[in-house]
Amino acid sequence: MSDYILEMKDVVFEYPGGIRALKGISLAIEKGKKSVILGPNGAGKSTLFLHFNGILKPKSGRVFYQGEEIRYSRTSLINLRKNVGIVFQDPETQLFAGSVFQEVSFGPMNLHLPLPEVEKKVEESLKAMGIEKLKERPIHFLSYGQKKRVSIADVLAMEPDVLIFDEPTAYLDPKHAEKIMDILDELHARGKQIILSTHDVNIAYSWADYVFVIKDGMVLGNGTPQEIFQDNKILEEADLKKPFLLDIYDVLREKGFFFDRLPRNICDLRNICDLRRDEMVMNSALLILVHGSRAEGSQKMVFEIAEKLKRKGEYQDVEVAYLQFNHPDLAESVERLVENGIAEIITVPAFLFQGIHVIKDIPMELKKVKDRYPKVRIALANPIGYDDRICDVISDRAKGRLIEIC
Ligand SMILES: Nc1ncnc2c1ncn2[C@@H]1O[C@H](COP(=O)(O)OP(=O)(O)O)[C@@H](O)[C@H]1O
Ligand SMILES: [Mg+2]
After folding, report:
1. Which domains does the chain have, with CATH numbers?
2. What is the pTM of this model?
């Protein structure tokens, strides 16, 4: 058994007058994947779809259904069309009967099924589209959105395994477009294979499991939505814009939000943004400034603290930098963090004695670093262990001196 429900190999198609609409298309649609053919107007999407149920025959090349090459005899085509249903872009061109019932029952009637069975199929398809009440209505009294639903019910009544939608949201207002997309999701959840074409990058990005980008009758690329929509070269070549969600994503990342994945839809994005800012894994690091030498084993405690903070996961990274007299290795640590994609560095001086003169140099050192990395946000937090209590401890120790030497 093939892993692909529909496949094309080197398909070339010309309309009368020599218009070459498909210029050697090869693609394979994987079973169970919500697949989108994405391309600008005139790319060849509708022409491609008409090959999938044998309405058009390639000039050269081959088309396969379930791994078997499509044949164009009458019986083969009738069989193929039972399995592969197409919902056309414009319902006006698809609907021809007087009433909704007559329209949707036409296919099952043609299969010479008994009337009660035909009625059952019609009822079920109308119900799936939420238009049971329109059953007796004349088609020409329906709104565009209602006609669109009837055209889908039309195809559903034939119970095909594969449902192909040519630009299903074209000419629909955003609310109706969303409803249609919900219906497609429902059909997918009920085990139907759904393939759609669109020029709408937002729909393709949010809905698809897999995307084929076509333009001028050729496939420019294929991949998961995450792969395709982060590939600026393909988008440019195909005259496609970035999905708005990815524009928002880019802005948020610039502002320091760290995402562990690309948000696929508004709901996804909201979930991420709903998290409290201080609970989020930000694209920021903590830099602990301590006094001493890297070589000294005395820094063990600081390292343990840094490890603990790292494990808490509130920061992308936790580093320790050293102040040695007036030679802090701050710049080195910052460079390492910036190279790792950190956008915000919070510096916390720790365990520095009050008397050490470099303390007052810290803001100056940080300013130098900021000048080198103007895009990185740098903050200085209150020092810890740098307060009068340390003085008290020292003077207590001094009072309780053990031995007096000479
Ligand atoms: N019936 C036709 N006769 C002649 N040329 C056509 C016909 N239908 C489409 N074309 C041409 O074929 C190319 C692909 O069209 P089409 O498959 O409709 O693209 P899409 O669906 O991506 O907008 C376009 O250049 C279009 O002008
Ligand atoms: Mg089209």
Report:
1. 4-242 (3.40.50.300), 283-392 (3.40.50.1400)
2. 0.72
